[in-house]
UniProtKB/TrEMBL annotation, chains A, B:
Residues 27-46 bind DNA. Signal peptide: none annotated. Residues 4-64 form the HTH tetR-type domain. Keywords: DNA-binding, Transcription, Transcription regulation. It comes from the Bacteria. PROSITE patterns: HTH_TETR_2. This is TetR/AcrR family transcriptional regulator.
Length: 190, 190
DNA sequence: GTCTATAAAAGGATAGAC
DNA sequence: GTCTATCCTTTTATAGAC
């Protein structure tokens, strides 16, 4: 909490702004305003916008992978853990802190940032696939279903934001979970 | 094909650029360069960037809804039509022309553009839900599953772009369809 | 309807003092 | 390490002639 404080505040402000409006749309000046840090400090700690973006995006993906591990490495059956991941409460209207970066061309045109985003999603899919394989699903089917699970979450965010309705995200998850784990109400009941 | 040609070329160029890099990140100058139209013409036809964006986004959503109708209103059983929609070949690495706008704050902060995007996704979900209801699914379950289907497509785009791998999108669709329509290889077979 | 010229503001830094 | 001042470029138009 001495002098490196400015650095941390810059990264936190950048994470917040990147989430709200994307990397390309965020100016150094905005980061200064939100962080309360002075201009000289910014360019001392991060010579270019890219340097700041790399630090902020890395912090965000690391936190996201941690959260996924907490859902998927926990106790319970394979399906239970996947459902826990799918139904975790999420800020549907704000969007996914990492997912939103994928349509930000400023991110995907930057090799370092694009690699960070790729590693995040590769980690997520691998984690989900491992859980499903445990469940006795053949490798190919497990990978397909893992991709579907991650896609449901990302697509749920897109739908919720597009429709301006958080329930759109939970509906998508429910629709998927119902297929995953045919419980009380089977289609045949109708 | 007389003088309104400039207008059409401006809209086409804007659609192309918005798809590739978003609305916020696209400048009027880029639209001029791609369309080959002069600056005076742009501001004659579209006094502000918003006016151009409204025209271009509307053209894009209209085309997208048309395509969805072609898949979902066609012949075949309900599941067949839904699978046709889910498995239609898509430009996975380029992303969804409408879906990508959802994380573009310049779009979502503009009431007209946001409404256009909302109407597109509402139309998509309603269409899918109608198909599933036909199939005998109760209304609530049909809506949930319709949200899931649209989310799979949008999430598939996100995954494919993030992983820089078009197969990620088809994997997500396969994973979902396998649950929807448990065919030859049932989980129990293992 | 289209052209060229101009301009006010924001973006992304750099310079040099402290 | 941090501050203020400055700079060049791009954005988003506007002005006025043709």
């Amino acid at each position: 909490m001495t002098t490196t404080d400015a650095r941390e505040r810059l990264v936190a402000a950048a994470q917040e702004l990147f989430w709200a409006q994307g990397v390309g749309a965020t100016s150094p000046r905005q980061v200064l305003a939100v962080s309360g840090v002075g201009q000289g400090s910014l360019y001392h700690h991060f010579p270019t916008k890219h340097d700041l973006a790399a630090a902020a995006v890395h912090a965000t993906t690391a936190a996201g992978l941690d959260a996924a591990h907490r859902d998927l490495d926990a106790s319970g059956s394979a399906v239970e853990r996947l459902v826990r991941y799918l139904e975790r409460p999420r800020p549907a209207l704000a969007g996914c802190k990492v997912g939103r970066l994928v349509s930000d061309q400023a991110v995907m045109d930057d090799d370092v940032l694009a690699a960070e985003v790729r590693a995040y999603f590769r980690g997520l899919v691998d984690l989900a696939a491992a859980v499903l394989t445990e469940d006795g699903l053949p490798d190919d089917a497990a990978r397909d279903r893992a991709h579907a699970a991650v896609a449901i979450v990302q697509g749920g965010y897109v739908l919720a934001r597009a429709l301006d309705d958080p329930d759109a995200m939970t509906a998508a998850a429910r629709g998927f979970v119902a297929l995953l784990d045919p419980g009380p109400t089977t289609p045949e009941d109708a």
